[in-house]
Design goal:
about 20% strand; five-stranded mixed beta sheet; alpha/beta; homodimer
Chain lengths: ~425, ~425
Amino acid sequence: MSKKNALYAQSGGVTAVINASACGVIETARKHKDKIGTVFAGRNGIIGALGEDLIDTSKESDADIAALRFTPSGAFGSARYKLKGLEDNDREYERLIAVFKAHDIGYFFYNGGGDSADTCYKVSQLSQTLGYPVQAIHVPKTIDNDLPLTDCCPGFGSVAKYIAISTLEASLDVRSMAKTSTQIFVLEVMGRHAGWIAAAAGLLAEQGIPVVILFPEIPFDQAKFLAKVDANVRKFGYCTVVVSEGVRLADGKFLAEQGTKDAFGHVHLGGAAPVIANLIKEAHGFKFHWAVANYLQRAARHLASKTDVKHAYDVGRAAVQLALKGHNSVMPTIERVSDAPYKYKIGMADLKNVANVEKFMPKNFISRDGFGITEACRRYLTPLIQGEDYPHYANGLPRYVTLKNVSVKKKLPPFAI
Amino acid sequence: MSKKNALYAQSGGVTAVINASACGVIETARKHKDKIGTVFAGRNGIIGALGEDLIDTSKESDADIAALRFTPSGAFGSARYKLKGLEDNDREYERLIAVFKAHDIGYFFYNGGGDSADTCYKVSQLSQTLGYPVQAIHVPKTIDNDLPLTDCCPGFGSVAKYIAISTLEASLDVRSMAKTSTQIFVLEVMGRHAGWIAAAAGLLAEQGIPVVILFPEIPFDQAKFLAKVDANVRKFGYCTVVVSEGVRLADGKFLAEQGTKDAFGHVHLGGAAPVIANLIKEAHGFKFHWAVANYLQRAARHLASKTDVKHAYDVGRAAVQLALKGHNSVMPTIERVSDAPYKYKIGMADLKNVANVEKFMPKNFISRDGFGITEACRRYLTPLIQGEDYPHYANGLPRYVTLKNVSVKKKLPPFAI
């Protein structure tokens, strides 16, 4: 095997731990300088790859690369950009191969979710056809936890931990205030299609916190929901509601897409949280507070799950190791060995089985009434939020690294994206 | 000085560290059993005191009391309840004295903000008049940071740290995504009258994060604001906006009170964040995300400032020490000795000078353009977010304590509140 350079690119929504995967890729590649030359990174993901806008990661110190493990966001920039189908777009794939060829890139590590797995798969197939073989390895990442063939997705465990802890803290707050003030706290969390993130709040039930969860998988039943909230307030004095942004009415319309208008006359998407809070107020008169966590939840590296960070690093390292073993068109996976004590190993899946398959929450993970999680779900989730992995602090703030991100000299003519 | 019991009560909105003050009060009292008998706590604050609904804190183990230092929320319940003016309401004050008398209470420690300082002051004055002298000591607490005569208020430093870090993390996220997706992130933070909490995001400027702050002190100037955001996006590729919930238009109307209606036809208060986000979208077309931190920010004990926790404990301890020295009608204060290295000592203020005085942000803390903070503000804020003081974790979640809260047998007839 001759020495080749590598291209690493981040794709889609970033997470608290995607840089830990980058760290795993780069640190492992640096240990195999006989096989892997320079690790380039795409500036803003695949956009940088197409535009030949590459970053030379060899210009970064070992200390800065190590600091990626503790830094949220995408250190090289990410992109929401899906390559078009091959039929109408071999132009983009041909350009990618041209960039690979120009920079002697033999390894492509693509760090993303379902869409990027599909892109990575196509690259792995096409590079052969187009006469410039590249080993394309997908590095799994998504807070949505919806990739198949892996027990979980790096990024998810940290969001789950953040939501469980934030919900716990806010619930204790409301419990303190409920006698004379706020009785209802509504937290809106991410999850357009699947309720994995919302499910994390279900872990609080064993602490006696009354949490009602609204999953996107369950059409919103207003009467049943309002009765449940009322019962909780009667029993506990307060109630917390965790609502997925993707909750829909029976007619399929998102709760959050209520087309409200503000005083400026602008229609805007409110969140699902205020809609839910106001419904409760209207029905029962309870005083409420609501929060929308949005990016705070997926960026919260300060509260990352140690298990999740380790997963993220491990799949980055494994991607390089698989490449060095000669694999192509695969994705390292997390295979659970046991729940308690939690043990896992790194496995491998063929990309053709990963691309375009979404994994939803199993039906037996949602409680019968539709507002909570089952014991099976608890067993699944609990290991994923284990352990704390605090960043270093200076002057009261985490020392997150910003890389130099030195550009590689371009060799090709410009390309219109 | 004969031995007397003590009453401790929490008041108003709770914080991440108010229980650290409770811990300081109770642990210190336990060291002086010759002078202080039982520390009772009002269940739900002053409501419990009026209703003779007292908690016997001597039933709690030393370990559980120590755990209060790490537990957010109000462990005994708090209340939003302001005693009425003496003119129309000596009934409530007479009742309080009757409860004190019935339970041999000679020390009243009231843990709250401006309103409770006023109540505490009146109790200190009236107990003499009504023939049952009680030493009333106010323990300062408020995330609003608006009490006079103390350099800062316990509770504020932790919120400031949470907002600075959450804004940093979300900003790095947006920076990663800005090329193809989100360019604007808007975070709404607490602060109806003063911009102290929003100001904390100004600490990120030295990290090169483009943050535009909207303070309640500065009437919202739409054109100027939109120009500033646009300039940031042109320069940095993205822009973060931190908006106080209390921001108002020039006519005095809250941005958040836009009287929107949802699809159910219910008028509801949207947050200021979606209003701001949509204004930017309308003007510039930038893609946005927004978050409303709400209770998450004041309950976030997982990210508390070590300095703030220490302040909170210290004022609790000092309150008992002041009482033991014979003081009445006072509040322990935090007196800054130096900024860097940060040093402080505990002072004392007369309650008559605390009650009904609000401290606003000094004019020289807000930058000339109205969207950031000055160097003076940075020097003030920096020490308050210093240090981390993590709770213990079990199974991935913080081990926050829930006390037994055993009721004291009532001795008086019921009282209608």
